[in-house]
TrEMBL record, chains A, B, C, D:
Family, similarity comment: Belongs to the aspartate-semialdehyde dehydrogenase family.
Active-site feature positions: 151, 244
UniProt-recorded name of the protein: malonyl CoA reductase (malonate semialdehyde-forming)
Keyword Amino-acid biosynthesis among UniProt keywords: no
Keyword Cytoplasm: no
Enzyme Commission number(s) from the entry: 1.2.1.75
Gene Ontology process terms (BP): methionine biosynthetic process; threonine biosynthetic process
Organism (species): Stygiolobus azoricus
Keywords per UniProt: NADP, Oxidoreductase
Enzyme class: oxidoreductase
Domain Semialdehyde dehydrogenase NAD-binding: 6-132
Amino acid sequence: MVDKIKVSLLGSTGMVGQKMVKLLSKHPYLELVKVSASPSKIGKKYKDSVKWIEPGDIPENVKDLPIVSTNYEDHKDVDIVLSALPNELAESIELELVKNGKIVVSNASPFRMDPDVPLINPEVNWEHLELLKVQQKKKGWKGLLVKNPNCTAAIMSMPIKPLLDIAEKSKILITTLQAVSGAGYNGISFMAIEGNIIPYIKGEEDKIAKELTKLNGKFEGQQIIPARLDTSVTSIRVPTRVGHMGVINIITNEKVNIEEIKQRFRNFKSLPQIKNLSTAPKSPIIVRDEEDRPQPMLDVSAENGMAITVGRIRHENNVLRLIVLGDNLVRGAAGITILTVEVMKELGYI
Amino acid sequence: MVDKIKVSLLGSTGMVGQKMVKLLSKHPYLELVKVSASPSKIGKKYKDSVKWIEPGDIPENVKDLPIVSTNYEDHKDVDIVLSALPNELAESIELELVKNGKIVVSNASPFRMDPDVPLINPEVNWEHLELLKVQQKKKGWKGLLVKNPNCTAAIMSMPIKPLLDIAEKSKILITTLQAVSGAGYNGISFMAIEGNIIPYIKGEEDKIAKELTKLNGKFEGQQIIPARLDTSVTSIRVPTRVGHMGVINIITNEKVNIEEIKQRFRNFKSLPQIKNLSTAPKSPIIVRDEEDRPQPMLDVSAENGMAITVGRIRHENNVLRLIVLGDNLVRGAAGITILTVEVMKELGYI
Amino acid sequence: MVDKIKVSLLGSTGMVGQKMVKLLSKHPYLELVKVSASPSKIGKKYKDSVKWIEPGDIPENVKDLPIVSTNYEDHKDVDIVLSALPNELAESIELELVKNGKIVVSNASPFRMDPDVPLINPEVNWEHLELLKVQQKKKGWKGLLVKNPNCTAAIMSMPIKPLLDIAEKSKILITTLQAVSGAGYNGISFMAIEGNIIPYIKGEEDKIAKELTKLNGKFEGQQIIPARLDTSVTSIRVPTRVGHMGVINIITNEKVNIEEIKQRFRNFKSLPQIKNLSTAPKSPIIVRDEEDRPQPMLDVSAENGMAITVGRIRHENNVLRLIVLGDNLVRGAAGITILTVEVMKELGYI
Amino acid sequence: MVDKIKVSLLGSTGMVGQKMVKLLSKHPYLELVKVSASPSKIGKKYKDSVKWIEPGDIPENVKDLPIVSTNYEDHKDVDIVLSALPNELAESIELELVKNGKIVVSNASPFRMDPDVPLINPEVNWEHLELLKVQQKKKGWKGLLVKNPNCTAAIMSMPIKPLLDIAEKSKILITTLQAVSGAGYNGISFMAIEGNIIPYIKGEEDKIAKELTKLNGKFEGQQIIPARLDTSVTSIRVPTRVGHMGVINIITNEKVNIEEIKQRFRNFKSLPQIKNLSTAPKSPIIVRDEEDRPQPMLDVSAENGMAITVGRIRHENNVLRLIVLGDNLVRGAAGITILTVEVMKELGYI
């Protein structure tokens, strides 16, 4: 790969930002050249403005980069802007960059449910990127805005995709057990969650249910037709570090062959696999036959955190049940964004 | 209370056994006079054969008691035998005692689903004790055998009782998040569960579903008619110490008034409350209106661990949802046994 | 006790504040009548301005109290003001109250090392309260200011007191393993400390070493002569909730009789024990002979958190070693303050 | 490397055994060809007799290996036997193999303090391998026995080596904070250690103090002359997963220049670095200048777990203090054994 694609990163010092810095430092053709962070850090070196919490040292090529602002001027010479901004700051910052012509691929929540903005989980709905043509026409933006889903929706949408024929005819009940990192590095205090369970995550349940319909929807020329998924989600915070688990119950009185379901998962491949993209997992969905898997401690890093793991697949009593686990920081955030960029390059958007 | 009831305790050195020792030490009329434990400990003082893990010291009246065997001879002069035996040892030991005329109230699993053995969670089904008359006739035992349910079934059966009219017409899906103490003090290693989730507990899911039908069943003269509960349970081990949580989903297309449901819970009283029994919680079901409750760290000790706490009661999308929490060692084990004895005394069985 | 003493509490909604609210709610003669908190909460009811984290509900007599300011006007009709203010806010607020004539007993750090301010750990140095006479003369304050020590210094000063003759001739090395609650409820995030150790606590090591010399010093008419303690402290944060542990090494080539040392600890009584004060532990220093004690999970609540526990007392190789544990929220903060007030009442300062 | 060295592994299914399996699977010239485990597993495939707890799957070349016994017959065609046996089983098994002519490199404790058996931490005392000549003469064994130290001694001996001139003239006090994995995967239950501290590890303190004198001793032709280290150790179990920390206090009234001490550590290289051995860390001792390091979560994996990290180096009050951290499973066990084999090959013992 001769020509590298120049990348800038918004929100580079947060936990997801650091994960992106790390993943980009080993990337074959994405080159991180600009890092931005909160105004008080502008001008400082990256290494002096970050509390680095990834194992190992800050990548060499990044540690001395100066922090820049989020203004267009500071990003005009990069090919693409990645965003790990906090949700509450993202809307206006990203909009300014897109209006000025930047391609922004973002993890933050604003615009995710905007009908003209593709919400991409590459293996699930890479073809929704075609919506970008509609976006340019309708929004009148000079640049492009692509969103990645909520971390839990990213993970849960994966096993639903190959089951969509069943799922669309069923009632779906999901209980999610979400790791503390999902709330940010300083999001929850030790005293609040150690040895405890908090059965509530603000705004999460609705986001997951809605984003699942868009992610599993169909692009039909001008718009995404959402999947008809009737999903009730209960989201619970548990004292684990990384890895969101979902207990998925699909109530169906259809006949279900468990072995055939496992085959659907094991055979699931999509564009990232077919094109052998750099960050793509070989098996996006790993099926575990052991009765006590998946477990965060053993399975969260499967395929460098880019695969999800499914286990305890059962059908009894008219309920198809499975347990899903994925890395909320990689599959659910930093990795999905980078894989999205790889798909965009493959398809000629970059 | 002039005359104390003499009690012996099987399995007195385990975690539930210790909890019983502690609860009995403050009891107004139950007096612990015999403690039994595994054969290697017989003859030693209680304090020298237990690794005491309850906060505070071993109760004065117990610490010098000699460990006795589980044989009938060693228990013939007590009024009642409580059992916190491991499931795999309980069957033959308890049977020998009952055949020899003892009243045994037991936490262990054998005989729980025997149609002639009452499975008692006092507030839920104290009236099932009447089955003891049938038991004596049919089994030909000189004594009496009363069982307490699985710890999770004990907790989950409480909120289902006041909802039984709805529940019997619905599909019920329960995800349980169970504390490590449920597996015994040495049941799960730190390395296996710290910061981890194990989405499987051997035998638990079936036990819970079945016991719920018996607990919420009706005694009709000669037998218990099980409740028609169509329950699918997924049991998950989480890294908390004490407190089993249940995410209960009741799929119903009936109209449901949330305030009325809360009233049912708040108004729920039963014989233990009416007779003001020593160990009875004033409010067996506590309803929390805060959006992030119940939490083990804050709610598990409500009413000294004898009340369960219910929160996040919602009805959306044809699913009545609630989150339940109870103390698996007290409400689910040691406390329920003692309260059962109190009911038996109240009703004249002792 | 006919006449209750009216108490107000600064910093009432924090973790130590809540612990004081709880302890005061059961107190025989201290009556909490005013609660203050940060300006944004003024006027709200206590129950609406606190995120209550003590097990059980907010005490009845406090939950509807309106939050008042920290100004003198809001406290002029109470007999004594207790302070659980954050260190960085305490200085000016407490000073204003004292200058206006209030008696303030405070947990916060400012003024602790002021030569005219008694730093009180009741069993260790209650007689330092006599310094208040000097304080009034020298400072010209209309009220009185009494300080309680840093939570770790409070705990470590206890076992040093009966060993002072040896300690003053020795080099002392202490490694402290401090619970997360010591940093406040939201002080350390789960991601930072779960399964981790942070071998640094800002400012702590110096505070402990210095406060130990004052606490174990002698009042000589006009001033406290500090104890000649040559102490090096290394303070480490560990993932426990409550309970600061100290590994104390006293390097001495004197002959030491371990049994005699244990007797010194077991016999240690002081004014609070002699006068049988309400909050005083019967045995301020509990000696454990088991080889694996003290442990936070088993020993932190000894005597309702007011006793410290000492174990592994050894003398080998010219090092007298012991391991100490105390409840940082009770013995180290809320309880010590209340016991100080009880001593002041006993001695006629209130 | 044309010819691979054939290796067999005793205790292959334990936690350290699994770590060795993993490290060997990527090794350039050590080839694991035999795996042994407890008698009940003999004949089964490795994958069917192990509860695999390393992230990722069992290495391809090992998963179908049949479990063999520990008898000489089952190991006679390998070049070297590695042992991760439990201490209580190791003595007779290893002795039989050595007497029959095998080269055994072992992690287990028996023979560690035998004057004729080299106790090797490669960077610290690789030259002690010369003792093997004495061993063969004196013991009359046909094979060779080499021991690796206790995991904590392995880690603590590293920073003491470059400070030996100071350390031998000083009193040394070490408090170790040891991770739960040090007790084996099932060694400590969650209920016993979660949120808790156990200030006692059976046998550990003596082992560490003694092994330090041998590791830092000098080989003088016929024997190891132990270093004159006067060390008192207090060993404490803390709720971390991997990584033993040591708070080292060296009481010295010599002048100490902190920068010079840091240089000693940073410059520390030994045979493994000079010969660039496969498993050798580039920097065996990493010095961290941040005030809050080392931390297990951030530093334990430095150089794949083969480097130790030193921080908070201070000299005040005649105490030279430092905090040390190392990976107890890699530097302290599996990795040190493999590096020892590499040194033995380099020196021609294999």
